[in-house]
Amino acid sequence: MLLVVLCLLEVLSFLIITSAAMSREHGEMQQARTSMMRARQLAESGIAVGAHSLIKAGDPLLQNNVSGIESYEAKVTTEERLLNLNAFLTAERLPLLERVFMSWGLSLVDAQDIAATFMDWTDADDLKRRPGSAESLDYQHPGLPPNRPFTSLDELNQVARVEELDAARPDWRTWFTLRGNGQLDVNTASAEIIAAVTGAFLESVRNGLDDAPFQSLEEAAAILGIAKSDTTNLLTVQGPTRHVESIGRTGDARCGIALVLGLKSGTPRMIEWREFSVKGTGLP
Length: 284
Known about the structure:
By secondary structure, this protein is an alpha/beta fold. The chain has 8 helices and 9 strands. Among the domains are: 2-80 and 240-276, Pantoate--beta-alanine Ligase, Chain: A,domain 2 (2-Layer Sandwich), CATH 3.30.1300; 187-234, no CATH class.
């Protein structure tokens, strides 16, 4: 009888301990969900501030420490800080894309072949532009290339010879976008992108960006050392597509939101809204 009682007590102890552990785990999960919801609300607050037309980059309103454990930080830039890939896949601009590839260390022939491969992906015919480019017979999967403009940057993983770009410049995809008007904003683009596209000396561009923002293309070209022929229909000092990134924080929970907003017509138009994962602190 005593043995039965002891067994029952052991079982009851196990059930109590297990129940307490499950209750604690449930409470922690609920707390994590609550914290993430609050972090998302704070990130949305930053987006609301950054989306306002009167808010400029560096405005103190883009940062707000709500309390000791809650805050949001937003960053305003333009989508034209990046290269619109589809806009560069034209006969006129393809040499500029080749120039970008060569700035990453590719030879002239490889740069021309890979740029032509991108063109083959989007053009309407099945004829190879160069012996080293790729058309349908060079792909293992049917339906490739799709012979249309890129609709997602994820499609870049399917393009022939992209592994050569990966080897030359592992972060090369971060240079491109499919949004924006196709121009390059010299006030928001990085020195590396400006130098690669225009052929200007990188150090000259880096030093010249200390004088940004520029009020005119003539001023930008003179200070950055850009040949005037490269400024025609390519560069701008004010990209019309606003890009806002905001990170909300509450305790250890963080949520990031990115907004792309078209402003060209005068009426704001949301082009893209997405959440992104946040590692560490500050904006990515």
